[in-house]
Structures are given as C-alpha cells and as structure tokens.
Amino acid sequence: MVGMERGVRIGTMSLTLVMAILGIFFLGWNFPVGDPSGQWNVAGFSFDGLTAFFLFLLFLGQGVASLYGLGYMKEYEEKKSLISFSLSWVAFLGSMAGVLLVNNGFYFLFLWELMSLFSFFLVVYEHEETSNRKAAFIYFVMTHVGTVFLIAAVLYLYSKTGSFLYGDWAAIASELSPGEKNSLFLCFLVGFGTKAGLVPFHIWLPYAHPVAPSPVSALMSGVMVKIALYMIMRLVWLTLAPMELWWGGLMLALGVLSAFIGILYACVERNVKRLLAYSTVENMGILTMALGTAMIAQTLGYTELVVLALAAFFWHGVHHLLFKSNMFMAAGNIIQATHTKKLDQMGGLLKKMPRTGLWAMVGAVGLAALPPLGGFWGEWLLFHALWKTSIQVGGGLLKLMLPLILTALAFVSALALATMVKWFSGAFLGQARTANAEKAQELPWSQTASMGSSMMLTLLILLWPQGLLKLMSVPIQVLSYQSSSSLTDSLISPFFSDFLSLITPYILLLGLFSGTLYLLSGGKRRRVSGTWNCGVPLTPRMQYTSLGITMPLRIVLKRILAFHSIIDKKFGENPYVLQSLKYRGRTREMVEEAFYRPSMKLVLWCADRIRILQTGSIHTYLAYILLTLVVVLIWTM
After folding, report:
1. How far apart are CA 348 and CA 351, in angstroms?
2. What is the pLDDT of residue 26?
3. Of 160, 97, 65, 114, whose CA–CA distance to 450 is shortest?
C-alpha cells in the first residue's frame, strides 16, 4: 500500500513538473508576443496575454512546490494517505488553471468553488489537531462569504445580458448606471479581496497557511492569492470599463492598509510560518497598490504611468512567488528538523543546515526588498509610479494622498527589513535554544534543490532582466492597449538602462568590500574562537528572543496590535524582596477583535432568539407556510 501511494505521489508530482516545463517553454518561446490582445476562444474558454502570464506563474509556482513536495511528503508515508493529498493537489492545480482560462461566469463560479474546496482539503490534511480543523473552518467560511458576493455580481450581469460570457458583459458595461457599476465593483472587490487576503478580509490567511503542509503553503501564497487579483483585472479592468477614479483610489487605500497591517503583525509574530503568512498579506497589499495606481492612471489617461505601475505589479508578482515559495520551503525544512514552529525554540541552525540556511538568507534578502535582488526593483518601480502620478495629478484629495502613501510604503519597507532580520537570525544564528535544535540535521537534496532552483531563477533574472521584461510586456499590452514596439520604447529600454546604472555601483562596492577584507586578512584563514563574556560562558538564555527584538514596537503600537502583557510577581517575606517574575505577552488580531468576533456574537445571539420559532408543532409550521404564501402573493400582485 505504501509503495502504491508513493508511486501515485511521484507520478502526480512528476506530471506537474512536466506541465511546468512545457508551460514555461510554450509561454516563453512560442506565444505570439506581437499580438497578445487577440483572444483564442474555444467552448467557453479563452486565452490572451494576461491569461498567459498568470498561467506562467501557475506553472512556475507548482513546478517548484512539486519538486519540494517529492522529498517533504516522505514524512507522511507511514502516517497518512498520500493518495488523497496527490489527488487534491492535482485537482487544485487544475481548478486554478480553469479559473484563468474560462470566459464564462457560470463555469467560473463552478471552478472557483472547486479551487476553494480542494485547497480546503489540502489545508485540513493534518486534521487530527484541533487547531488545524479550526483554521481550515475559518478559511472555508471566509472564502464562501466572498463567493456570495461573486454569485450576486455574476447573476446580476446575467439578468442584464441573458448571457454568462465576459464579452457580452463588457458590451453592455457602458450602458449600466453609475450605481450599478459601483455596486458590481464592490461585490467583485469583496469577493476577490477575500481570496487575495486583503485587509480586512484577510483573517483566514494567518490561520490557514501555517497549518497546511509547506508545499501547499508555498503554492497558495505564491499563486492562488494572485489569481484573485487576476480576476479583478479580468472582470473590473477589462469588463466594467471605463472605470471610475475612486475605484483605483479604494484599491490603493486597501493596498496600503494591507501592506501596513500585514508587515506590522509579521514583525511581532513568533510562529515561523505565521510570520510568513502575514508577510503575504503585506506583499498582496503592495501588489494591490500597484494595481490601484495603474487603475488611477488609466482613468486619468496617463498611459506611460499605466505601463510603469503594471510593470511594478508583474515584476513584483514574479519575485514574490519565487522568494515566498523559497521561504515557506525553508520553514518546512526547519519544522521537520526541529519539530517546532516557534522561533524562540530554534537558533544555531546555520551550522546544522547550511544549504537551507544559504537559500533562506537569499529569500530573506529578497523579501526585505534589499538591492540588488529583484524584490528591490519591484518596489522601486512602484515608488516611481506613485511619485510620477502625484506630480501629474492636478489637485484634490488624490494629490494629498499620494505623498502620504509613498511615506507609508517606505515605512513598510523598513518593517519588512526588520522582520526578515528577525526571522533569519532567530532561526539560524546564535546558539541552539532547545535540544531539538541542537540535534537538527540538513534535509535531503530534493528539499534544498527546489529552494536553490527558485533562488537561481531570481539571480538569472537579475543578470538577464530583458527576458522577464519581454514576458511582462505581454499582459501589459492587453491592459494598456499599446503595441509591442511602443512598450519596448517606453518600458524595456529605459528600465534596462536604469537597471544597469543602478546595479553597477552595488557590484563595484561589493567587489571593493570583498577585496579590502581579503587584503586586511593578508590572505590567511581566520582564527575562530569563542566570544568573550567576562569569563562567563555564553548560554542560549543570554540571546535575544524574537519577542525581545520587537518589544519596543509592541509597546508603541499596542493599541493597533491589540497587545496585552501580563506580569506575575512573587515576593518573599516582605514586599521589597522579589523571588520570581514571569512575563507573558499576547497579540490579537485587531480586525478580528473589533469586527469579526462581535459580528459572530451578534449572529449567535440572533440564532438563539430565532430558536423560539421551533415549537415542534406541525400546526405552527403550517401557519408559517401559509403566512409566507400570502406575503408572496401580495408581493407579486
């Protein structure tokens, strides 16, 4: 049985790897870049440049995650059924591809529900633990709350056109009243914003990602949440056009809020995977900021700024996929080696797991948006887009808001750096804090090779950015309605020249710094000795903890973080002699505490009151039916 399960798992993972290779080959070399705006329509499915780019993300993300899963899932061979995982994995991939390819609202809702259902099965894979079932339930409820809004929008458009085709919806969009278009936009924003993990619809994400197997976390964080933004482009940008100016402003505001709240909670989090989940909220906020900026520029007719903002979106989307997948895989390796998810129970893993530590360091630098890696250039493009938009906007609230958003983005970048320093140093540097960390060993090559492949791709893009820029021009043509030649002139050539001029000083400084160190050391090997501590041996308890590093931030922003501290003091015979002191701190989700918990209490209170209608009498129930029938008849007349 074990052999058959392993065969099925290897077969399905190999199949997805083949899909990735063929997909990247097809999209990178054989796609008609010159005319991506023309759609290929076959039986309710369509394919254009925007679809092609997100299929590229899907193939790339699942290829890396599948390669990692070949080694990671060996831990479950003797414990759980791998057949159910493999089938759910393939169905999840297929449903995501279907959502990207479909151009029919009915098929879209069906595939969207399948995507939610099979991702739920993957999240609840380790259902034996109560916390895992709770997290999966929260994800299931939230994703279906969003689906309610999507169903309402799709059915309304069907009632107006008598068709489920996106093209028929776009044909009558200009005939809709402002109230109708605004309502449809809000329904799409809530429905897709919930799946994308935008604040305040994000509460499922910090629960679901930490409990899912690491390949699933990598795929959901790297690909699935971005598909929601793809659908906003498809059903808002391309279907409900022309857009309203405040739509882009609202997207921009939600993006800033998501980026700030996400990185703030990531900065104070101590769970190694939950921290990365909040980082996903932050990066989805950055992507939404870029999309909102592009929507504003499109509405105002600033074509060059549309291209610049969309370039920031697609560039950052690719690099977030690679860096975040790498970090979730690193987290999976750490958890398998130490059997804990708490940063305070790790430490010193760089000596025990050098390959994992090396690639995790590269991923942390990328997510911290430090030059010269690709994470920096995506945010640099977004800074430029926001700054140029603030200069060209004539006046009003938008003129005041954009400089503040630039400041907020800079603050988010600083917190991202602090978060990644905390994550890497807490896990890999210093001394081992527990016996499990002391006994940790490097994982198999299959689990580190997938990390290395994703990071080598980012380095390849760094050395040869024209390839990605050419690929990015495909969806940008669809959204900005420009030709390939004009895009090359306005985006690729200037960016590449600026890229070289900006990256060259960093390369020179790195070479100068390395040469200086070599000369100072005289070309000799370093002498390694213990750290001097006044004659007292260093112990793990003397190290900074993840809680200690971020404590000032917790105290300053305790109202936003809903942070509560409890100090237990035990005195001796008199109140001046302190025998022991224990400190406990707890951070709660502000949005959850302020909105979702009170809403849930209200729903339960209403349900409790409605129970009085259940009398158990058949006569009472017949009276309810009669009363309902009378009301319906009066309403129809």
Report:
1. 6
2. 44
3. 65
Token representation of residue 204? 């499922």
Give the Cα separation of 83 and 443 in Å (integer).
Answer: 23
* DSSP labels, 549-593: HTHHHHHHTHHHHTEEEEEEEEE-SSTT-EEEEEEEEEE--HHII
For CA atoms 133, 135, 138, 141, the dihedral sign is negative
* Token couple for 581: 């002191």
What are the start-end ranges of the H helices in 271-396?
272-300, 303-338, 349-352, 354-367, 374-392
Task: Name the CA radius of gyration of the chain, rounded.
Answer: 26
Rounded Cα distance, 607 and 86, in Å: 39
Pairing of strands 578-587, 563-571: antiparallel
559 is written with which tokens?
């109202």
Determine the average pLDDT of the residues in 34-59. 73
Give kind and range of the element (H or E) at residue 32.
none
The DSSP secondary structure of 421-484, one letter per residue, reads HHHHHHHHSS---SHHHHT--PPPHHHHHHHHHHHHHHHHHHH-HHHHHHHHHHHHHHHH---H
pLDDT at 150 over 70: yes
Tokens encoding 32: 């008609």
Residue 244 scores a pLDDT above 70: yes
**pLDDT value at 484 more than 60:** no
Q: Give the C-alpha separation, 514 to 517, whole Å.
A: 5
Nearest-angstrom CA–CA distance, 79 and 125: 12
Residues 189/35, Cβ–Cβ less than 8 Å: no
Helices (H), 124-165: 130-161
For the stretch 572-584, pLDDT in tens is 777 777 777 776 6
Is residue 29 within 8 Å of 472, Cβ to Cβ? Answer: no
Of the chain, the percentage scoring pLDDT greater than 70 comes to 83
d(CA 96, CA 380): 30
Look at residue 477 and tell me whether its pLDDT is greater than 70.
yes
Report the range of poorest mean pLDDT among 373-387, 390-404, 488-502, 529-543.
488-502
Q: For residue 124, with 0-12 CB atoms within 10 Å meaning exposed, 13-18 middle and 19 or more buried, which class applies?
A: buried
Model confidence band, residue 523 (pLDDT cutoffs 50, 70, 90) = low
Least confident of 17-21, 174-178, 256-260: 17-21
Question: Which whole-number Å values give the CA distances from 2 to 7, 10, 79, 90, 178, in the listed order?
Answer: 8, 12, 10, 19, 60
Contacts of 215 (CB under 8 A, 6+ apart): 65, 66, 68, 69, 72, 73, 89, 329, 332
